[in-house]
Structures are given as structure tokens and as C-alpha cells.
């Protein structure tokens, strides 16, 4: 019937000739933040994509702040200055790290190669380090009854679980409207929900979620604005004001707020403080993260290459950080509680985390952090077809 309505002599226009699909180059090996870590896989004759020095610098400096914060923690009950520095750093270091992780998760989808990378780069290291931490705690803390728990991350492994959950939900955050307000609403509800419990450390997963969602929707021009001259000038007085406020608030505020691992009920706070503190900490963290990015160098530095090994440093330094508590190192060395001693502790923390991010350490622990595990996955028929086509050409 449809053809009878067409003018006499009408003929369907011929379809264009089918084009043979061009072979897709294999996805390069990448770290958990999305940077390429393996050998370049660009086609012959083309220049491989270079890592952005700015983000490697930011990751390295953020992980140094993480190590410093852990080193300052035992000093916070003796030094008001250490407590103020601790609160200031805890406001920005993990939010900065999480925001970068979100930014490099923008291209994540359920493609097989990316799911494999999610398993080998996040799930498997979580399992390995959760077991390693369990045996370490039994030995170092003289606690032979401490049980391994797959669902209850111990110490630093919560970040791997969180990154796994966040990345798996990335396709959802990319298609819904108002993702950031929704993630803030979820974080707020989590802060007043004591029944969430410790499984998978979901309190932290949900309360830190907004920073990942923000990073997921950021664009290169947003970072350009934060790296401008005006931003650098404004960053210094803002950071100074944040430290002064932290110095005043230190004795008056529970530092557990910055961990985001407990509900307001577990912190013995009024229910209304959940929404207030969630939004206030989010706002403060975003401002300080912007100040941090403003002073991150844009050019290659001596530590730029260490940005590829930050997850190594993050997980490995946990043994030293916890060991110093288990073995009473701070109590056995009273000089650490003096101003000069605090400076020495800070230098030691920065030096140790730097060494743990170096290429030799990466090569030594790559079996645990970036296992290839080719034997564990089925071969992708599409990838095999692409390889045959490339070979035949």
C-alpha cells in the first residue's frame, strides 16, 4: 500500500556500499585512575598518547598528603597544630584522589576489556591485600583471633571496594539528570542511616560518592580554570583561613567526621547534623581541592613518573602506618611529640611514600597490584577476529 502512494517512476535510492570495519587497536593497560601503564599500543607509525603530567603530579602530591595525615594522627592528641594540619589535609586529600578517579572513569562502560581491568586492577588487589592485612594484624598486633572478612574492609582497602562500586555505577551517573545533587542526597541519607553497617564499608562508599560523581562530569576546561593565575593567588589565603579555622575547631570537633565511616547516631550527634555536616564538608572539601589543584605543577617534575604508582604507595604504606601503632613507636620515642620531632615525622612519611611509588617497587608488587590473569578469562571472539583481520592485512 505504501508503494502505491509514491509518484510514478519512483525508485528507492541505492544504499551506499558497506564499509569494512576498521580494526580497533587493543586497549592499553591502564592503572585504576585510567592512565596507561603498559607498553604503547598505538598503531604503527602513530605516536602513543602521552600521560598528562598535571594529573600524575596531583596523584603523587595527594598520596603524600595521605601518608602525612596518617603520620600525624598519633600526634593530634598532643599538638593542636598537628591536629589543625590533620583536619585540613583530611578535608582535601581523599576527595582530590577520588575526584581524579572519577574524571578518568568517564569512558568506563561494560565492555569486556574494561570489566577485566576492573577485576584485575581493583577486585583482585582488594582480595590480596585484605588477606595480607589480616595476617599482618594477627602478627603485629598479637591478635591471633582476628578473622578475615571479605565484606568488612580493614584500614585502607575500603578505597578499592569504593572504587569498584563507583565505577560499576558509572553508566548510571552518566545518563541521569542532576547526578551531583542526587549523589549528595544519597550521601546525606547515608549519614543518618545507622543500619547500613560495616559491610563493604558502605558508609564511606556513599558519603564519598559525590566527589566521584563530580569528577565523572568534569571537563578539561574545568581543570584549566583551577590552574589559572587568579586561582593560584586566591588559593593561598583560602588555605591559610582553612588552617586557622581548623586550629580553632580542633579541640571542639570530633575528627571522625572527616573519615565519613559513621552515621550521626554512631557519632552521638543530633540527627539534623547529618545533612548539615555532609553539605558543609562537601563544600569545604571542594574549595580546598580547587586550591590544591591550583598549585599542582603542570609541567613534568622529578616526581611526575611516581604518579603511576600511587596505589602501590597507598596500600603498601598501610603496613608501616599501622605497624608504628601496634609496636608503640610514637610512645617509645617522646621526641616525636615535640615541634622538631613532628617535622621529622612528616619528612619520614613523605620519604617512605615516595619510595613506595617508585618503579622498582611497582615491578616487585605488580603480581598483586596489576596481575594480567589471562588464564582467568574467556577469549573475546571479536578481538580474535580483529587480530586475524590485522594479520591478514
Q: How is this structure best described in words?
A:
With 393 residues, the chain is mostly helical. The protein has one domain (51-382). It contains 16 helices and no strands. The protein has helices at residues 53-72, 80-103, 112-140, 158-168, 170-175, 179-191, 202-207, 209-216, 220-226, 229-249, 273-294, 310-326, 329-332, 339-356, 359-369, 381-392. Helix 1 (53-72) packs antiparallel against helix 2 and helix 3 packs antiparallel against helix 4. The chain starts with 52 loop residues before the first helix and ends with a helix. Mean pLDDT is 86; it is low at 1-29 and 36-46.
Layout: helices, strands, pairs:
Elements: H1 53-72, H2 80-103, H3 112-140, H4 158-168, H5 170-175, H6 179-191, H7 202-207, H8 209-216, H9 220-226, H10 229-249, H11 273-294, H12 310-326, H13 329-332, H14 339-356, H15 359-369, H16 381-392
Helix pairs in contact: 1-2, 1-12, 1-14, 2-8, 2-10, 2-11, 3-4, 3-12, 6-8, 6-11, 10-11, 12-14
Amino acid at each position: 500500500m505504501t508503494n502505491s502512494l509514491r509518484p510514478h517512476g519512483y525508485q528507492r535510492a541505492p544504499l551506499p556500499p558497506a564499509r569494512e570495519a576498521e580494526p580497533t587497536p587493543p586497549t592499553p593497560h591502564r592503572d585504576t585512575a585510567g592512565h596507561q601503564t603498559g607498553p604503547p599500543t598505538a598503531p604503527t607509525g602513530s605516536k602513543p598518547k602521552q600521560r598528562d603530567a598535571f594529573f600524575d603530579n596531583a596523584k603523587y602530591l595527594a598520596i603524600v598528603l595521605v601518608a602525612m595525615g596518617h603520620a600525624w594522627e598519633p600526634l593530634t592528641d598532643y599538638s593542636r597544630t598537628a591536629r589543625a594540619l590533620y583536619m585540613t589535609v583530611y578535608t582535601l586529600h581523599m576527595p582530590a584522589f577520588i575526584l581524579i578517579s572519577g574524571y578518568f572513569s568517564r569512558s568506563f562502560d561494560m565492555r569486556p576489556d574494561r570489566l577485566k581491568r576492573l577485576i584485575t586492577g581493583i577486585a583482585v588487589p582488594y582480595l590480596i591485600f585484605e588477606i595480607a592485612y589480616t595476617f599482618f594484624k594477627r602478627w603485629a598486633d598479637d591478635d591471633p583471633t582476628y578473622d578475615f572478612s571479605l565484606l568488612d574492609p580493614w584500614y585502607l582497602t575500603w578505597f578499592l571496594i569504593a572504587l569498584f562500586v563507583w565505577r560499576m555505577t558509572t553508566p548510571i551517573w552518566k545518563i541521569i539528570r542532576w547526578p551531583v545533587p542526587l549523589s549528595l542526597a544519597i550521601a546525606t541519607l547515608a549519614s543518618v542511616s545507622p543500619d547500613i553497617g560495616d559491610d563493604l564499608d558502605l558508609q564511606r562508599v556513599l558519603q564519598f560518592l559525590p566527589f566521584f560523581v563530580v569528577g565523572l562530569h568534569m571537563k578539561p576546561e574545568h581543570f584549566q580554570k583551577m590552574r589559572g593565575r587568579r586561582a593560584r593567588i586566591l588559593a593561598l589565603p583560602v588555605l591559610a583561613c582553612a588552617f586557622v579555622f581548623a586550629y580553632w575547631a580542633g579541640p571542639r570537633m570530633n575528627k571522625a567526621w572527616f573519615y565519613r565511616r559513621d552515621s550521626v547516631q554512631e557519632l552521638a550527634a543530633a540527627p539534623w547534623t547529618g545533612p548539615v555536616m555532609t553539605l558543609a564538608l562537601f563544600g569545604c572539601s571542594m574549595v580546598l581541592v580547587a586550591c590544591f589543584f591550583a598549585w599542582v605543577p603542570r609541567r613534568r617534575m622529578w616526581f611526575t613518573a611516581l604518579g603511576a604508582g600511587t596505589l602501590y604507595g597507598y596500600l603498601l604504606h598501610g603496613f608501616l602506618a599501622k605497624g608504628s601503632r601496634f609496636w608503640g613507636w610514637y610512645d617509645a620515642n617522646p621526641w616525636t611529640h615535640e615541634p622538631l620531632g613532628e617535622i621529622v615525622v612528616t619528612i619520614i612519611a613523605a620519604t617512605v611514600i615516595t619510595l613506595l611509588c617508585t618503579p622498582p617497587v611497582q615491578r616487585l608488587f605488580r603480581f598483586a597490584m596489576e596481575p594480567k590473569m589471562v588464564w582467568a578469562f574467556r577469549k573475546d571472539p571479536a578481538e580474535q577476529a580483529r587480530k586475524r583481520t590485522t594479520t591478514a592485512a
